[in-house]
Amino acid sequence: MGARTEVIVLGGAGVDTIVQVPELPLPYADSYMIDSGIRTRAGQTGDFVALGLTRLGLVTHHCDLLGDDPEGDLVRALHEEHGIALTALPQPAGTKRAVNLVGPDGRRLSLYDTSRGHPDDRFPEAVLRELAAAARHVHVTITQPCAQALPVLRETGVPLSTDLHDWDGENPYHEPFAYTADVVFLSAAALADPERTVRRIAERGRAETVVATAGADGAYLLADGRLTRIPAVAPPAPVVDSNGAGDAFAAAFLYGRLSGEPPERCAAYGAVAGAYACTVPASRADAIGRDELLARAAAPTR
Hints:
Elements: E1 7-10, E2 14-20, E3 38-42, H1 45-55, E4 60-66, H2 70-82, E5 85-90, E6 96-102, E7 108-112, H3 125-133, E8 137-140, H4 146-156, E9 160-163, H5 175-178, E10 183-187, H6 194-204, E11 209-213, E12 219-223, E13 226-230, H7 245-258, H8 263-277, H9 290-298
Parallel strand pairs: 1-4, 1-8, 2-6, 4-5, 8-9, 9-10, 10-11
Antiparallel strand pairs: 2-3, 6-7, 11-12, 12-13
Helix pairs in contact: 1-2, 1-7, 3-4, 7-8, 8-9
């Protein structure tokens, strides 16, 4: 890793097996015939954020625990293909993996294999400090063992972001991330009152910016104490899979932030990138490029 690194992505490397199902929830049956095929590809939350940042022109370095297994090889190949620097620390329990059931409308149900890790897993402090010292920003995923890395990263003074995904506002696992990061992303899917939750994150923690994405209803942006509704953007093609939309939003928002754009503009970038991600089939790992992002963000809304 060189001094040009702009963003470190910590955690969230893994492999998904994609199954296109006829509907969600999937009714019980002895078997289903999957005509579209069952595909396994590299790409979980950290991989998608790193890919999104890289496609937008930011020099990105990803760090996580990986197994010496075929799934780890897929993750390594994804990073090599896209020119993303990767620090792969050994994980004897194996590379993280999940099964995603994807419905015809693009909704998904993810089944995460929690056996690919141990409670005492840790990122070496020296590695964390070396990575943070050379970066403008660190994006911390909520995968284990990233929570234990937060105090060390906070000591370095590097700005931090995180994505709480579908936090319900109550689960204590997410709280260290929510109250330590400077920029917090989350989905509003499990929130009864998104405005109340984003304000509580800002009040209890360090966040200067909190964004709750709400799919077709746009997003809630809390910046400098002011809540703004960000409109959704029409996808440029039919929606086929919502997987990775939140990661794409976060990557594009961070691109705007590191480019010096105001929060509203950053969120507009995020809405464009998230809409694009919904048009990418689940079997592929892809993200919007910088030229297309800027062109779509500049286009008049209809």
